[in-house]
Amino acid sequence: MTRLALLLLALSMWGGEVGAQQLHKIAGFEYGNMKSPTGREWESPTQLSYNKEQPRAYFFSFKSHEGARAYLPSEECAYYKSLDGIWKFHWVGNPSERPMEFYKTTFDTSTWDDIEVPSAWNVEGIQKDGSLKYGTPIYVNQPFIFHHTVKVGDWKGGVMREPDPTWTTYKHRNEVGSYVRSFTLPEDWQGERVMLNFDGVDSFFYLWINGQYVGFSKNSRNRAAFDITSYLVKGENKVAVEVYRSSDGSFLEAQDMFRLPGIFRSVYLTAQPEAHIRDLIAIPSLSHDYKEGALQLTAELRNQSKRSLKGYQLRYTLYRNDLYSQNNHLTGASLAIDVPNVKANEYKVVTGKLELKEPALWSAEEPHLYTLIVELLDRRGRVMQTASIVTGFREVVIKETPAEEDEFGLAGRYFYVNGKTVKLKGVNRHETDPETGQTISKERMLQEIALMQRGNINHVRLSHYPNTPIWYYLCDLYGLYLENEANVESHGYYYGDASLSHVPEFRDAHVARVMEMAAATVNSPSIVIWSLGNEGGPGDNFKAAYEALHQFDPSLPVQYERNNSIVDMGSNQYPSIAWTREAVKGTYDIKYPFHISEYAHSMGNAGGNLADYWEAMESTNFFCGAAIWDWVDQSIYTYDALTGERYMAYGGDFGDTPNDGMFCMNGVMLPDLTPKPEYQEVKKVYQNVAIEEVDLGKGLISIFNKRYFTTLNDLELVVKLMREGEAVAEKVVPMPTIQPRSKATIELPFNRPQVMEQPEEFFLNFELRLKQDRPWAKAGFVQMEEQLLLKERDHYLQLSDLSAGASPLQLKGSTLKGDKFELSFDEATGSIEQYTYDGVALITAGNGPRLSAFRAPVDNDNWARDGWIENGLHNLSHKAMSKEVHRNQDGSISILYVVESQAPNRYQLKGGYTGHFEIDTVEGEQDFKFVTTQVWTVYPDGSIALTANITSNKKGVNLARLGYELAMAPQFDQLTYYGRGPLNNYNDRDAGAHVGLYKSSVAEQFVPFPKPQSMGNREGVRWTEVTDANGHGLAFIAEEAMSASVLPWTALELMLAPHPHQLPKSSGTHIHLDLGVTGLGGNSCGQGAPLPEDRILGDGSHFSLLIRPAGTEKRVSIPVL
User: Fold this and answer.
1) Burial 803-838 (b: 16+ CB within 10 A, else e)
2) Terminal CA-CA length for the chain
3) Do 677 and 605 form a contact (C-beta atoms < 8 A)?
4) How many of the other CB atoms lie within 10 Å of CB of 24?
């Protein structure tokens, strides 16, 4: 059966006989003429709405054909009037306290507060002294915010049960916000049907117009539209809205987010004639060779007049948009369809097919859009209504593929867009803004899309609800593949017998929420997957929702990770690397194609093993992609009650109970859309080229184009020759046209023989830069990049040679003196006590290098942090057990100490995900210790070589790091290093960190995570140098490469500060120099701890390090003792 035939069959099954009934008639949507509500609608799950319009696609009526070409409405060109702005507002904590008759036209609201609409009233109520005027923002992950118990039938108790007295909802059981404003209709709306539209209200509301009850709605994230024509009067009209924080709808809205009530999306009026196009659908299809396209058109007409419509016609005109623009021009494709008679107060579904030869296809790589204008003409040919939608020619199919047709030679069931097995390189996205909560401006959306496209992200899972309508248009326009997800998550009851997915009373709500999503966004070409919801159980209610959705739109596959058996493709959340590596082979008993709906939990400083996931997923076509959890930290600005400082708050910071603390901070971006260091890794791993060496002896490389539809001709290849981290030559290298999924070999102007006689290390850096401006970046932006090693270092300098000519060392007790320096050792700890060079004190008493194995836990360290504290890694004391002194033939002096490092007590860590860590001392002696044989070799020029052999008494114990830490005075605040950068990186997150020479202030090494944690680490560090403004300081040189970090605070200070503004005043510059640092992994949710090869263990280790005055030679060999 053809796709067109399937669609026609689906429409007939969903709406009854084509041409006879409505497209949608959702159970639970009730209609009538009640004079007032019963007051119990918000606790009746079978009552979904009253007098709310059936769902339809997002489009507007325009005043002219030319106006309709703009698609988005304005008050000048469309029958559209915004009611966003200032409303009168009254807040109470409990329904019994609400103003009962506020909706009446005689009720005086002049003393009420003003509030901005759209907004969340909890956020609007945050005061600069930290107090809360309009209730409490509550962050929880899975639970409901009202009393509940996980058991069958618990939902029957409703949302008003008395919770524990510590809960926020004990006092404010169910906040109610009352909103009032007035409006006057435009003069040219006379005789039109007027709709009042709410794009999002959380979670339930009643509506009155001019004192008359209109109806209610309880799905917070789909449009609620009401025909208010019969309630209007000439002149000024009063609209009153009563919003409840919690309702039975809240049982299906237990998403991992701040629970924020209010009118949080736009409110507006629209108008159309009494006989009008109520719904409009255009489903694209393509011929087998993708040379011909068609739009299957479905229009639902409604006649609200008192006479039959006879002789009417629908006239369609198709325009092609310029790329990334709403500017458009005629295609020549048009269609006129005669409308059968439509009786008074009846509906009629009218279908047709508009064909186009050689359509420009829509994909995320080239999102070619079309604007379709439809006009309703009466029998005399007069235009009665003009509307428009945007569409694109894209086709999504899942099909069995023989091995000979697969890129990898494997037979399987694969996911295709326009005939190509695209990879969805994605993120999950909550709608969140620290300034406004879940009210998102168009400007912020554009900023987010630009950041995604700069970061090579091509896919967004809309977690876990339909987004603000304009988001879809922007993704259509700029090119992102979307998984559109219904507003269904009953996570508070989990997935067993108590799940609401099994409860018949919630069946209609499950189906309605899925169908409201689909009806509103069915025309969006950016949507390539439907999702039935998230974490709501496996029951029959989702089966019913799938059947309804698939009947309405069989053109797109459906996903639901809690029950793969009922949908079209497989998915799961947070699989391990090991599982993924095997599952991508296509041999597991899972449903293929497979899409990982959540992975790489990006809580805090995260992103470990991203490259490992994609090495697996790009090896076959069985997995079509994955979406990182998630895009941006969910945080809300508030104020410190003691200091007045503004900061980014997470769960618990508002006194909200219960809460899930920092678990809302899972983004690739910080709350204000500042990229976290992980972003650079995402950009690198997600990029659409692979550059590899073919033979650099001859200057040959290969470039593989990972794109599916476009060449790389929009990019310019720039190659830089890097010597010791600095560019010494740069060339633009011509690239041939490289077709999608194809490889080309390129000869470079640089090769290995050119540099082999030089002692330094050389790399080749490759940058693929935009040739032209794009909406997300200007020409010259580096879209993709790579680095290849050209030559390793050799011919190291010898310390004995560098010290030649210096006076012999003087040793007196524990103090050594040279021509320019004085150095003393602490006999008690076996470390440097003081070091002065050229009269500048570089190391002062108590701050010398000492063994270190601790870091401020990142959020993914929950697998190990308790053990680190129990073993006392945060509080090691160091005791020299023996000492030997040796004078060496080259004039150096070696001092050997055997040092035991052990904490004085046993400890216990408290705090978990609250962000507020506490360390308690517990009874019993600490049984963990290190024993280190460390040799300090001092040279006449002031160089100090450290060689350490480190063991512990617990073989295999997991450590945060292993190396040395020291502190320098605060004025040593400048950092230069040669290693991986420029952003912090770890051994399992360094694909996007190229070796280079980088400079910054020490303060700039701090990353303002809302909860401070480990940061600043750099891998592959050859040397690092810390100086003051005059260049005085120390250089630290690795034997080969080390891990290093330099920050203004200690690891313990970072750990104990709940927020950046609560860090103590910096006591100096704190330096870590490590033989290794444990990777990040992804254990905060599912993925697991760092891989074994990425961990640092307490087994025997060797570490060598050279300390030299700043500004001296760094390509120096460390002698082997």
Assistant:
1) beeeeebeeeeeebbbeebbbbbbeebbbbbbbbbe
2) 79
3) yes
4) 22
The predicted-structure confidence for 574-626, as pLDDT tens digits, reads as follows: 999 999 999 999 999 999 999 999 999 999 999 999 999 999 999 999 999 99
Query: Percent of the chain having pLDDT more than 70?
Result: 98
Residue among 539, 538, 561, 560 at smallest CA distance from 549: 560
Q: Which residues pair with 920 in a beta bridge?
A: 908
Could you tell me which residues come within 8 angstroms of residue 39 by beta carbon, excluding any fewer than 6 positions away? none
Host H or E run for residue 617: helix 610-617
Q: Which two tokens stand for residue 311?
A: 């002789």
Strand order in the sheet with 821-826: 810-812, 815-817, 821-826, 831-837, 840-843
Q: What is the side-by-side strand order in the sheet with 275-286?
A: 275-286, 292-303, 346-357
H/E stretch holding 746 reads strand 743-747
Measured distance CA(1109)–CA(1115) in Å, rounded: 13
CA distance linking residue 818 with residue 1104, whole number of Å? 23
Give this prediction's pTM. Answer: 0.96
Amino acid at 878: H
Three-state secondary-structure class, residue 473? helix
Question: What 8-state DSSP symbol labels residue 609?
Answer: T
Of 675, 664, 690, nearest in space to 984 by CA: 675
Instruction: For residue range 342-397, list pLDDT tens digits in order.
Output: 999 999 999 999 999 999 999 999 999 999 999 999 999 999 999 999 999 999 99
Task: Say whether pLDDT at 15 is over 70.
Answer: no
pLDDT in tens, 483-507: 999 999 999 999 999 999 999 999 9
Q: Are 838 and 1028 a contacting pair, CB within 8 Å?
A: no
Alpha helices in 370-462, H assignment, sequence order: 442-454
Ordered domains of the chain (ranges, CATH) = 29-272 (2.60.120.260), 279-396 (2.60.40.10), 442-629+666-683 (3.20.20.80), 688-793 (2.60.40.10), 798-1117 (2.70.98.10)
Q: From the CA atom positions of the chain, what is the Rg in Å?
A: 33
Please tell me the distance from the alpha carbon of residue 828 to that of residue 883, in angstroms, as a whole number: 10
Residues 1025 and 997: beta-carbon distance below 8 Å: no
- For 1042-1104, what is the HEC assignment? EEEEEECCCHHHHHHCCCHHHCCCCCCEEEEEEEEECCCCECCCCCECCCHHHCEECCCEEEE
